[in-house]
Amino acid sequence: MSDGAALLSEVEAFHRRFNVFPLEAAYVAVVLWDAHAHLLDCFDATPRLAFLSPEPASGKSRALEIVETLVPYPMVAVNASASALFRAVSGLSARPTILFDEIDTVFGPKAGENEQLRGFLNAGHRRSGVMYRCVGDGANQQVQEFPSFCAVAVAGLGSLPDTILTRSVIIRMRRRARNERVEPFRQRVHEGEGHALRDRLAAWADSVRDRVEGAFPHMPEGVTDRPADVWEALLAVADAAGGDWPKRAREACVELVNAAKVDDKGSLGIRLLTDLRDQVFNGIDRLPTVAVLDRLHSLEEAPWADMAGKPLDARGLSRMLREYMTGDNTPITARNIKAGGNVMKGYYATDLHDAWQRYCPPPSENPLLPLPPLPRRSGALIR
After folding, report:
1. pTM above 0.85, yes or no
2. What is the mean pLDDT of residues 44-49?
């Protein structure tokens, strides 16, 4: 058996020659992802690897190029359809590792929803994932299932649908600073070096397959649910490699999972609940709807002042909050609030508390002070 720890270190050094990642943890995660692709049949789930950036020329495509040299049966896809991908996964003699560049052209703001491709990427995250299609001629159609389980790495501008992000190890790429240097990648020269490492990874993977299959690696404290699914395969690879990789892998896991929590605003509904808790109510037990909306609109980095060209209004607020339940399992709705002799519709913190507990991330250790009282309206001071 080859020295797995030393081999992974060589793969890391190969990445470092051509890639500048934003965090040390990113190198660890990408190397483990490269190796896990050679052991895919040992796992119940495979994480997506997502190289994302806000601007072009941030090294995303180069990162995919280096990954391409190291993984088994790479299939480079740009703007490929879901049908082409799931037929490739189910029809080729060997399961491909799909590398999808320019994913923003598929899921970007001008590209539509692309539900079929989203479904393929979501279903293929798990070994049991399949796509169902009707196959046949004319009236002789039969439903056939196509396996979609495969390793997928993507690169693109902006972000991805939440259902894909939560199944991904996310590397937030950025343009190199002037003092950051990389070796120019020359395919004719360097591809062979990557392939040599790939072949060694494949041989090492065969030697540890029995140890990895069925393994349930110890998860760092606080890493549960979907993040645990994402990292289970990578930690299993690190444990099989030994050396300092198990320690580095778990440190990288915690760092990248926490970074994803900071970056992830969740759904728009969770963003609304969190802003209501931390920025609007923040210790106040009730507020009229007009006060809630004024405070939401005043949040500079929030979307509430410009929702498709219009500010969030009372009807939109009501529609969003009705999706969540109070502690009594009834929809959150506006109720009467007495203010200065007037009765106004508004919201109570007690109605929101159960949703805050269930959906929102833990509150900041240094919560913001409540916003100052709003000016008088119709002779009543809104508090």
Report:
1. no
2. 95
Average pLDDT over residues 12-21: 97
Q: What is the pLDDT of residues 344-353, one digit of tens each?
A: 999 999 999 9
CA 2 – CA 240 distance, rounded (Å): 11
CA distances from 315 to 170, 289, 290, 298, 322 (A): 36, 10, 11, 18, 11
User: Rounded to 10 degrees, what is the CA torsion of 361, 365, 366, 372?
Assistant: 40
The number of residues making up the chain comes to: 383
pLDDT digits (tens, 9 = 90+) for 233-264: 999 999 999 999 999 999 999 999 988 876 55
3-state secondary structure labels for all residues of the chain: CCCHHHHHHHHHHHHHHHCCCCCHHHHHHHHHHHHHHHHHHHCCECCEEEEEECCCCCCHHHHHHHHHHHCCCEEEEECCCHHHHHHHHHHCCCCCEEEEECCHHHHCCCCCCCHHHHHHHHHCCECCCEEEEEEEECCEEEEEEEECCCCEEEEEECCCCHHHHCCEEEEECCCCCCCCCCCCCCHHHHHHHHHHHHHHHHHHHHHHHHHHCCCCCCCCCCCCHHHHHHHHHHHHHHHHHCCCHHHHHHHHHHHHHHHHHHHCCCCHHHHHHHHHHHHHHCCCCEEEHHHHHHHHHCCCCCCCCCECCECCCHHHHHHHHCCCECCCCCECCCEEEEECCEEEEEEEHHHHHHHHHHHCCCCCCCCCCCCCCCCCECCECCC
Measured CA to CA, the distance from residue 218 to residue 233 in angstroms comes to 11
Euclidean distance between CA atoms 1 and 23, whole angstroms: 31
d(CA 313, CA 306): 10
Sign for the CA dihedral angle at 205, 211, 212, 214 comes to positive
The single-letter code of the amino acid at 259 is A
Going by C-beta distance under 8 Å and a sequence separation of 6 or more, which residues neighbour residue 370? Answer: 282, 283, 284
What amino acid occupies position 230? Answer: V
